[in-house]
Amino acid sequence: MTAQRKFRLGILGSGKGSNAAAIADACASGEIPGEVVLVVSDVEKAGILERARARGLEALYIAPGKSRARLDETAEASFIQALQRAEVDLVALAGFMRILPGGFLRAFANRVVNIHPALLPAFPGLEAWKQALEYGVKVTGVTVHFVDEGIDTGPVIAQETVPVLPGDTPETLHARIQEVERKIYPASIAALARGEIRVQGRQTVWKRV
Ligand code: GRF
Predict the structure, then answer these.
(1) Per-residue pLDDT of the chain in tens (209 residues, 90 and over written 9)
(2) How many domains does the chain have?
(3) Taking Cα atoms as reference points, which of 99, 94, 206, 124 lies closest to residue 157?
(4) Mutate to test the pocket of ligand 1, among 49, 181, 185 (most ligand atoms within 8 A of CB)
(5) The pTM is what?
(6) For residue 94, how far is its CA from the centre of ligand 1 (angstroms)?
(7) What is the DSSP letter of 164?
(8) Residue of 125, 119, 151, 121 whose CA lies nearest to 138
(9) 196 shares a domain with 123
């Protein structure tokens, strides 16, 4: 009997890797019916690579090129090649700080997702928890979404609220947001791995099975 092929995840990140760790742990515990086959970072010493290696996962640094904001063409080709070689079914961005060019998104059409630390479309872009605090909102949250060519504009997969409490600092608010991220991202990826989420234009439809 041939074993059924597991859902294969690639993760891209530039930071400390708490989301990547939560996703890997959810695969190990069986919450996500899949496996993390490759972790790639554009930052050589990023914590995400260390955390991946500590879990015995394949972890690669790929130089991003000269642009500060996006992958250049050579880097884009290397990222695509590494992920295609690993035969990933889904690319999960977890704190990846560069814009992915259209060629990358076309190579993995409808198969790139991201976690954003605010309730989109509020506060897209960088340090969304700081934006929320400075704006003075009482509630912010977390969004899991598909990635398109805009900045944090793709179809929403899941959202959860997080209260802004009196006395919150950027650090305390971000920590509370990250606790929610570590639940909602693995849960969304599990649903994607089970084939329970369909995209229809801007809408995503969850089929509970
Ligand atoms: C998270 O807050 C995520 O929402 C944002 O970047 C941060 C990454 O954190 N996109 P980590 O590296 O997963 O700890």
Answers:
(1) 556 789 999 999 999 999 999 999 999 999 999 999 999 999 999 999 999 999 999 999 999 998 889 999 999 999 999 999 999 999 999 999 999 999 999 999 999 999 999 999 999 999 999 999 999 999 999 999 999 999 999 999 999 999 999 999 999 999 999 999 999 999 999 999 999 999 999 999 998 75
(2) 2
(3) 206
(4) 181
(5) 0.96
(6) 6
(7) P
(8) 119
(9) yes
Which two three-digit tokens encode residue 130? 């700081």
92: containing domain: 1-109
Residues 88 and 151 in one domain: no
Question: 67 and 101 share a domain?
Answer: yes
Q: d(Cα 25, Cα 29) in Å, to the nearest integer?
A: 6
> Ligand 1 centre and the CA of 157: distance in Å?
17
Active-site residue list = 116
Check whether residue 178 and residue 96 sit in a common domain. no
